[in-house]
Structures are given as C-alpha cells and as structure tokens.
Amino acid sequence: MPATRTGADTVTALLATADDLLTEGLDGDGPLTPAGRDRGAAYALRIALEAAVEAALTAEEAGLGGLRSMRAKLLCLHHYAGPGRARRAHALWNRLSAACKYHHDELGPPHAQVHAWRAAVGALVTELSACGTAVEFPQQRGSENPLPAEASPR
C-alpha cells in the first residue's frame, strides 16, 4: 500500500505543479497550449486551496471532517480562521472555480491573472497553516438584553 501524503505535502506538491505549468513551455513547446497550461495551473491552485482549508478545519475540529461541500467548509472557516481569511479564501475559490470551467465561446484565464492567483493562494495557504488559534465564536444574540435597564420596556 502506498504511503499517504500529509495535507502540507499535498498542498506543496500542488503549488509546485502550478508553478511548473506557469513557467515551463512558455515558448509554446510541448503538448499543452499556453491557455491549457493556465487552466491546468488554475485547477492545481483550486485543489491546493481546498486541501489547505480541509487541513485547517481538521486541525481545529475533528467533527468537521465529514463535510463534503467546499461551500460548507468555507463557512466553517469563517469561525476558525477569521472573517478576513475566510472571505479571501471564498473569493479565490470562486474565481478559480470559474477559471476551471471550459466554455467554447470564452477565453481561458489570462496568464497574468493566474500568476496573481498563485501568489494569493500561496499567501493564504501560509496563513492558514500558521493559524493555530481558533477565533472565538460570536456571542449568541438574544441571551443578553441589549438595552440598558432603564431603557427596557415594562
């Protein structure tokens, strides 16, 4: 049975694959077109982001491993990594997902945009792996009376 890779190894390998696709064959040599390389790099970046989110949630809460939907994972990430990181992850994932879809009447993602996504995913992956402290859940509304005692209705 082959040895399984850890989440960090998988993310590192996927980021390296994206780097290879973005840098190799810029002169047009090889079986892939430049547009195919950019779309392939977008796929690798999206999967790397998904693996990093999965690893961040697994490190925080064992019960979240059963989540299958990436949207549900991104919602949970809001509480474990903070709203700013979660918003960035969600925006990146949406853009990468759109870039991975092939439509015959649309151009693929521009090379410069995929490079920008690579930098953003790399930074976010680093932040998620370094984020070891969970963000506190917000106070449940309704458990406390938000009005001062003199202003509450009688």
Core attributes:
5 helices; mainly alpha
Characterise this structure.
The protein has 154 residues and is mainly α. The chain has one domain (7-130). It is 61% helix and 0% strand. It has 5 helices and no strands. It has helices at 7-23, 34-60, 70-81, 83-100, 111-130. The model is unreliable at 133-149 (pLDDT under 50).
Strand content bin: under 5%
**How many separate helices?**
5
How many strands, which pairing sense, and closed or not: the largest β-sheet? none
Low-confidence residue ranges: 133-149
Radius of gyration: 20 Å
The mean pLDDT is 79
Sum up the overall morphology in one term: globular
Cα-to-Cα separation, first versus last residue: 70 Å
Q: Supply the number of structural domains.
A: 1
Class of secondary structure makeup: mainly alpha
Provide the helix percentage: 55-70%
Number of strands: 0
Question: Strand-and-helix sequence, N→C?
Answer: HHHHH
In short:
With 154 residues, the protein is mainly α. The protein has 5 helices and no strands. Helix 2 (34-60) runs parallel beside helix 5 (111-130) and helix 3 (70-81) packs antiparallel against helix 4.
